[in-house]
Specification:
By secondary structure, the chain is of the alpha+beta class. It has 2 domains: about 45 residues, no CATH class; about 70 residues, Sandwich (Cytochrome C Oxidase, Chain F). It is about 35% helix and about 20% strand. The strands form 2 sheets. The chain has a 3-stranded mixed β-sheet, with no helix packed on it. A two-stranded antiparallel ribbon has the order 2-3. Strand 4 and strand 5 form a beta hairpin. The N and C termini lie far apart (about 55 Å).
Length: about 120
């Protein structure tokens, strides 16, 4: 009898939770319904077609002096890694400073640092 009373009590608690919160009655919430904080900001921005945290694939540039690869940064310098050739296994790392476009010391591809502010 105590086991049956315990089970009945658990069922009553579950039914109370379902009636109060209604989660099971309406199904599983979508990402949009349950997102909060930064995740919600990113989801709303993606609906508008913007990329506030640069998480999408960047636009491609020629890498020339006239059309350098754009590197966003919240500071005035950033470490950049260049894979000089498509099938290369080594990465050439160098500091990129704000101002004029700079070349990769190995292959000569141009990069330019641009200021970027986080949206929060």
């Amino acid at each position: 009898l105590p086991a049956a009373a315990l089970v009945r009590g658990l069922v009553d608690q579950w039914l109370y939770c379902v009636s109060v919160f209604g989660r099971f009655a309406s199904g599983i919430p979508t990402d949009d319904e349950q997102a909060t904080g930064l995740e919600k900001i990113v989801l709303e921005a993606s609906k508008r077609g913007t990329d506030p945290y640069s998480i999408l694939k960047p636009q491609e540039y020629a890498g020339s002096k006239q059309d350098p690869h754009i590197v966003p940064s919240i500071t005035n310098k950033r470490i950049v890694g260049c894979v000089c050739e498509e099938d290369n296994t080594a990465v050439v790392w160098f500091w990129l400073h704000q101002g004029e476009a700079q070349r990769c010391p190995s292959c000569g591809t141009y990069y330019k640092l641009v200021p970027h502010e986080l949206p929060h």
